[in-house]
Automatic annotation (TrEMBL):
Pfam families: G6PD_C. This is Glucose-6-phosphate dehydrogenase C-terminal domain-containing protein. Keywords: Carbohydrate metabolism, NADP. GO terms for molecular function: glucose-6-phosphate dehydrogenase activity; NADP binding. InterPro entries: G6P_DH (IPR001282), G6P_DH_C (IPR022675). Coiled coil: none annotated. GO terms for biological process: glucose metabolic process.
Length: 161
C-alpha cells in the first residue's frame, strides 16, 4: 500500500504481489519480461476505482509458454452511474445516524495504545521521515525496501489511469 502527499500522481491503491512458486516448469520459454513479473492483485481506491488481477498464464496448446493476462474491473466502464465521493457517503451516513463507518471510543483508545509507544520511540531516537522532491515517485528508501523483498514498485503496465 503506498501513499504520500506531493507525489507525481494522486492515487490510492492496495497492491498484493504474490511470490513466485518454487521451480519453473516453463524453463526460459517466457513470451516477454515475465520472468520478473509476479501475479498481482491491485485494488484502486481512487481515482478511477478499479480491481485488477494480473496473472501469468499458460498459452493454450501443447507448448510450454506463458503469457501475461490482465483481468480488470474498471468501475466507470462497468457501472456508468457516477460513484459518490467517499466524503459524500460519509456525510450522508452521519446525517442519517449510521455509525458503522465511524470509529468507536474503545477502538480509538486501542489505536492510541498501539501508536503512542511508537511515536515516543520516534521522538526519542529523533527519527524523521525520509523527504522526497515535489512531484517525484516518492522516497528513494521505498524503492530500496521494495527491491529488498523482490517487489516491483509502481509497475503500472496494463492498467488504465
Amino acid at each position: 500500500m503506498g501513499w504520500g502527499p506531493l507525489l507525481d500522481e494522486s492515487r490510492a491503491e492496495i497492491r498484493v504481489q504474490f511470490r513466485h512458486v518454487p521451480g519453473n516448469l516453463y524453463k526460459r520459454n517466457f513470451g516477454t519480461d515475465l520472468d520478473k513479473a509476479t501475479n498481482e492483485l491491485v485494488i484502486r481506491v481512487q481515482p478511477n476505482e478499479a480491481i485488477y488481477l494480473k496473472i501469468n498464464n499458460k498459452v493454450p496448446g501443447l507448448g510450454m509458454r506463458l503469457d501475461r493476462s490482465d483481468l480488470n474491473l474498471l468501475y466507470k466502464a462497468r457501472y456508468p452511474r457516477e460513484i459518490p465521493d467517499a466524503y459524500e457517503r460519509l456525510l450522508l451516513d452521519a446525517i442519517e445516524g449510521e455509525r458503522r463507518l465511524f470509529i468507536r471510543s474503545d477502538e480509538l483508545d486501542a489505536a492510541w495504545g498501539i501508536f503512542t509507544p511508537l511515536l515516543k520511540e520516534l521522538e526519542e531516537k529523533k527519527i524523521s521521515p525520509e523527504l522526497y522532491p515535489y512531484g517525484s515517485r516518492g522516497p528513494v528508501g521505498a524503492h530500496y525496501l521494495a527491491a529488498k523483498h523482490n517487489v516491483r514498485w509502481g509497475d503500472l503496465s496494463g492498467e488504465e489511469s
